[in-house]
Amino acid sequence: MATATSDIAKSIDELTHAIAGIAHVERPCLETRLILRKMHKDKEPLTKELAETEAKVAVWKAEIKNLDSWSLQWFLLLITCEIRAERDRARKGLQKAEELVLEARDKVENMNDQIKDVETPNEKNEVDYRTLQKYREDLTTLLDNLAIDETFLENRKQEIQTIKDSLNQIIEDDKTLEKVRELLKAADSAILEAIVELRQSNHESNLGEGRVYFPETAYEAIKEARELYPKLPAIQPPEKYVNEADNTGAYYSPMQRYLWDIRRKLDELLAWCDHQVILHMEVESRDTIVLGEKTDQWNMERRRLAKEQSLM
User: Fold this and answer.
1) What is the per-residue pLDDT for 161?
2) Which of 239-243, 250-254, 266-270, 304-308 has the highest mean pLDDT?
């Protein structure tokens, strides 16, 4: 029995000293994690911009295909010159869209490089931090197994539990927000595909006057997102149709422009979600550091009491 007690005491002392030796990595590790998570959030609009510019390339290719087939059909008519001018305009639009794709891709690649520059130096801290967490768990378990009278430490124990409960709530809320974000991005992708589809087909002309085409996938995704997170702001419908070219010179029908405008509204909702997540990140990072410090202090006090009570 004495040998077992001695072994436990030795393990407790060794873990206590090991924790003290690497506890310094916790703050820089978690602060770097926070920076990286924010950088990944900053990358998302760049990735979306790339997808959007690629869609505009598809729009212009569809435009050129339509003009080519139309010019063959009406080859003998006097409007051939007008069609040629439209084809020149479409090819310039395609060229501009392809240039924007290259620019957007460069932005994404540059952000990936920046993330790697921050991520790589933190790899050792990540390994040490996982070790620190394991040491804390092992030490806490060993002390839990001792019949320590720690009545006067009850307030400290409650403080730790309160922080844990708060962190668990943040984690659950973030899981919901992440699901909401995925649904909104799915709706965004469905709307973008619908815009390209409308340019490539006659679907819009077959709908009839006064009817609005809205992809069912997008509708269901937005509906589910709102049910999951009732605090999500409402989407305000576009107020008026503005007939203006986009950054590649393309013009869109009222229905297509309506869908583009809804996508902008989804951008606002995603930005709102990101703001909530970033607020949570900052609280989570701060409170996790505090939790580690308080846990170490609590275990140090319990170790002292165990020695005073001749339990180790």
Assistant:
1) 95
2) 266-270
CA angle 110, 282, 269 (to 5 degrees): 70
The domain tally of the chain equals: 1
Per-residue pLDDT tens digits for 165-174: 999 999 999 9
| % of the chain beyond a pLDDT of 90 | 56
- Residues 6 or more apart whose Cβ sits within 8 Å of residue 297: 156
What is the pLDDT of the chain when averaged over all its residues? 86
> Containing domain of residue 93, as a range?
2-308
Residue 101, pLDDT above cutoff 90: yes
Average pLDDT over residues 300-310: 88
